[in-house]
Amino acid sequence: MKLPAQRVASFLASPDAGMRATLIYGPDAGLVRERAARLAIAICPDLNDAFRVTELDGGGLSHDAARLNDEASSLSLIGGRRLIRVRDADDRCGTVFDKFLKALPPGDAFILVEAGDLSPRSSLRKAFEASKSAAAAIACYLDGPRELAELAREVFATHKISARPDAMQYLGAHLGGDRGISRQELEKLALYVGDGGVVDEDAVMASIGDTAELTIDDVVYAAADGDTSQLERALNRALGEGAQPVSLLRAELRHFQRLHLAGTRLAAGKSEEEALKLRPPLFFKLMDRFKRQLRVWPPARAQAALDALHTAEAQTKTTGLPSETICRETLMRIARGARAKAAR
User: Fold this and answer.
1) DSSP labels for 114-170?
2) Using an 8 Å Cβ cutoff, are 61 and 152 in contact?
3) I want to staple 38 with a disulfide (CB 3.0 to 4.6 A). Which of 12, 62, 128, 340 is the partner?
4) Interhelix angle for 323-342 vs 245-267, to 10°?
5) In whole angstroms, what is the distance from residue 225 CA to residue 242 CA?
6) Measured between alpha carbons, how far is 24 from 326 in angstroms, rounded to an integer?
7) 3-class DSSP assignment, residue 321
């Protein structure tokens, strides 16, 4: 079955008694690891217990289907439910799990499967989603503003730290590509301000790493500038460094939301200074480029770009097409639109 988002937290803490297997997958590798760790501990508190915990490789399992049945049927020599962790799974072992879940062997061992991004057509996903009660599939999509805010509050609460609204806005705009990295950055920020401290925008800007963000900014601004050559180079670099296509689409989306807001203010008669009072504030080195982009992207055109970006993000989750292809085509289309407008 496909586990609803509202049930995930309670399920990870205490999985259903009759559940035999769970697939945790998605583009956010850090969130996949985090959720898998929580579920694993719920099954077996001591993950170093060699009598109860077995690890298998997804690629190897595709060539040795009998191994899964053998492990699932084995009992622990010292009692307690056995945990079988299958890492780096993909559609190569989709048929293996389809057969396994349709003819469950005796025993109560729990199979925990970790995978990367899987399309709706994935045979591995279908095997778990088709199961009525013995298996569950949990998707791990990239954190949005709400999830990032919840994560920040969770980390700050353990250190009795309070955060100002402008700082939370900045965090929402600069984190989210990977749950593990986001958590590390928030822990680093908590260490920077100290237990019982206050997180303000200055503290966030001084603490949060900006290397990945600068790479993403290269993508975002190249697309809005209409510089297709620079966009191609920036995309290759960002994706090569591990940026997720959906996170790039969301970064571009946030950028156009700011262009739309500033452009709407200008159209309403506000001064340029008033129009550019944005949160988080614009990086001063990018201010001139943003101003030039306002002329290329008035509110109506910016809204059209926003619509295209929303559609592209939805397509990465529903069409089964490669998310990188969707991302590239959408950003290139935006860049070509900017270049055509600037050439008039």
Assistant:
1) EES---TT-HHHHHHHH-SSSEEEEE-PPP-HHHHHHHHHHHHHHTT-EE-HHHHHH
2) no
3) 12
4) 30
5) 24
6) 23
7) coil
DSSP secondary structure letters along 28-74:
-HHHHHHHHHHHHHHH-S-TT-TTTEEEEEHHHHTT-HHHHHHHHH-
Residues contacting residue 14 through CB under 8 Å, at least 6 positions apart:
42
- Four-residue CA torsion sign, 54, 57, 63, 68: positive
Structural domains in the chain, sorted by start = 5-139 (3.40.50.300), 145-207 (1.10.8), 211-342 (1.20.272.10)
Q: CB atoms < 10 A from the CB of 81, how many?
A: 13
Q: What is the mean pLDDT of each run of 10 residues along the chain (344 residues)?
A: 91 91 90 94 92 89 85 80 93 92 88 91 93 92 82 94 88 75 89 94 75 71 93 87 84 93 93 87 82 94 95 85 91 92 66
Write the single-letter amino acid at 335. A
Calpha distance 290→85 (Å, rounded): 48
Tell me if 175 sits within 8 A of 62, measured CB to CB: no
- Of 152, 130, 155, the C-alpha closest to 143 is 152
